[in-house]
């Protein structure tokens, strides 16, 4: 009968065998971790690829920052130009009525027509805290050629004026040369922050 293999003193103990198996498994796990995580650094090719990837990311981020700066510059330029447009073409709410009446009267006198009754209506502009839409309904008396000159002068006004409608009528008692015209003019006025109407 064959004799069992003798491994030495204490090798037949199941605890010792389990410790050996656990030790072998621990060594195998450590070897797998070294292969998977490369704690000592990669090869030269791996490091070159990683450097190129990181360099590409840096370039992309720098491009985004530059594009964002350009966008900020454009927004600031737009805000400045918008404020300049408002200052140049829109009247301040405190002096708006006086300015437009004086301008219309001067323009009518220059065109050779007479300004009559007027009426104002102000409405807030939706979405704006500082702008109001002002509708001016005003009557004029004069001849057709004079009205043509008047409309041309209003069109060249330094103010931002919109002629919404025009109603003309020839008075019955006149010789047909004179016209009564009612204009509806729209313009926008601005309120300076902190100012009162």
Q: Helical region count?
A: 4
Q: How many DSSP E strands?
A: 5
Give the amount of beta strand, in percent: 15-25%
How many distinct domains? 2
Mind telling me the C-alpha Rg? 44 Å
In whole angstroms, the N-to-C terminal distance is 120 Å
Description:
The model has no long low-confidence stretch (mean pLDDT 83). Helix 3 (96-111) packs across helix 4 (144-155). With 197 residues, the protein is of the alpha+beta class. A hairpin with an 8-residue loop joins strand 4 and strand 5. It has helices at 14-37, 44-89, 96-111, 144-155, and strands spanning 91-92, 114-124, 131-143, 161-169, 178-190. The chain has 2 domains: 43-89; 91-190, Alpha-Beta Plaits (2-Layer Sandwich), CATH 3.30.70. Strands 1, 2, 3, 4 and 5 form a 5-stranded mixed β-sheet that branches.
